[in-house]
Specification:
The protein has 118 residues and is mainly α. The chain has 5 helices and no strands. The protein is elongated and about 75 Å long.
């Protein structure tokens, strides 16, 4: 039993280290995604892969400790959240809207298009 506990402790320490590295990498990647000179598609793919790997690590840690993960404890990145992150990154790169941009809007057309969607 002691060998099993020691083995579990060693694996937990390795998982903790991997989780820490992944969290730092994700944070740095998110900062890089805000830069004007980044390849957003490539960085988004890397971000998705790192996030999925991190989720696997959390699941492995819970399994290793015989804890059944619940839905609220397991981070799930759903498509709508991913879309929101991607949109956020794209909008971060855009300049602020100014009066000239607003003057160019065809509000009648915009209203018509919005009504068609409903």
């Amino acid at each position: 039993m002691t060998n099993e506990n020691e083995y579990r402790d060693r694996l937990n320490k390795k998982l903790d280290a991997l989780v820490a590295v992944l969290e730092v990498a994700i944070t740095k990647l998110e900062q890089a995604m805000l830069s004007d000179a980044c390849d957003i598609e490539r960085l988004t793919t890397i971000h998705d892969n790192l996030t999925k790997t991190l989720e696997i690590c959390w699941h492995a840690k819970k399994s290793l400790n015989n804890i059944t993960p619940s839905l609220k404890d397991t981070p799930q990145m759903i498509d709508s959240e991913l879309a929101s992150i991607n949109e956020y990154m794209k909008f971060q790169k855009l300049p602020p809207i100014d009066k000239k941009d607003i003057d160019l809007v065809d509000f009648a057309d915009l209203c018509e298009r919005l009504q068609e969607e409903n």
